[in-house]
Amino acid sequence: VLSFIIFICYIASLAASFMMAPLLEFLLALFLFFAYASKLNEKFKGLYWPLTDFLRCVTAAIIYFAISIAAVSKYNDGASKAGGVFGFIATIVYAIDFYITFNDLVTFLKQGSSDSPEGRKSEDENSDSDSD
């Protein structure tokens, strides 16, 4: 919703050249929402969905921060300033989502390393030496 509001602000402003980034983020968020809602993530196991969400959040936070600085500093109309302010808010929201998704990613990677044969082998060796 925030990306759509920013998109509308940039269309109505002199900074119309910035409208593509919020539009793409809105469409990507919409796609991921429908992918999770329709259980598409369970059908395509080869793609790690939280990683795609993580990459989207990182790039969105960086892009929103950059275009918000440019919109607020370069343009003087109210819609550009509003788009910039909403862009800073979106940067914070995407940074929080980035943090949450990063924790999920770390948890997944820790589980993946303990499920690997090398991880089990070293655990078995440690348990054998403890029983001696």
Tell me about the biggest sheet?
none
> Which stretches of 5+ consecutive residues score pLDDT under 50?
116-125
State the distance separating the first and last CA atoms. Answer: 61 Å
What is the N-to-C succession of helices and strands?
A: HHHHHH
| Helical content band | over 70%
Q: What is the total tally of β strands? A: 0
- Class derived from helix and strand content: mainly alpha
Helical segment count: 6
Mean pLDDT, to the nearest integer, reads 81
Q: Rough shape?
A: elongated
How would you describe this structure in keywords?
single chain; mainly alpha; 84% helix
Describe what this molecule looks like in 3D.
- The structure is a single chain.
- The chain has 132 residues and is mainly alpha-helical.
- The chain has one domain.
- α1 packs antiparallel against α2 and α4 packs antiparallel against α5.
- It is elongated.
- About 8% of the residues have low confidence.
- It is found in: Membrane.
- Keywords: Membrane, Transmembrane, Transmembrane helix.
- One of its GO terms (cellular component) is membrane.
- This is CKLF3 protein.
